[in-house]
Amino acid sequence: MKKIYIILSILLLTLSNQVSAQGIIHNDTTVQNSAYLKAGIEPATMLTLGYQHKLALPIIKQDIVTYAELGFSIASIKNNELKVGGILPIVEKGNFKIMNNLNLSYGSVSTINFNSKKFAVADEVALGIYKAKWCLAATIEYEKIYLNYIENSSFYKETFYEDAVDGWYKGAGGMFQIGIEVGKTFYKKYDVNLEIKMPFSEGFNGYLSPAHANLVIGYRF
What topology does CATH give the domain 2-220? Predict the structure, then answer.
């Protein structure tokens, strides 16, 4: 029974709030920052606030967009995720770009049976057409949960397993997502993006939800 709840916690903690590549400011040299609000289902219904800042990397003569975002489940503020990362164009041929998004995340989930925390690393590659006012890209992402902390509730111990032990557990696997994103920039300042992704387990089996979707609204400055 305890293994079931550990696996469930890992599924619940996979709140893969990915930053949309169109929301980044590589296609506008006059803009250094962006703030955004994201609402989506992944599989929990999430609301996320984020901030991006563009930095120059003189060593490789390239810009990188760093970002941080904090997301909450609409059902409970105790279910949340903090993510930091960077997005770098690795191929640029005119309007065609391949973007790499590497990030680290810390997530927390609270249920009647347990409280759980996770530490994960994810990498997403997006390839498509990125113009000044719109983008269309295909994406593939892999997220790996490396560590979980499980704290069993009194209810769980009294009802199911009184000898349950709190502690750290090795992550039980990862998740792939493939999808598509489309974005439009209005008046050079306002971004609207839509992302739709299909999740798969590390073994390319079915997942907790058949699809994830995010709507992102951003402001460049």
Answer: Lipocalin (2.40.128)
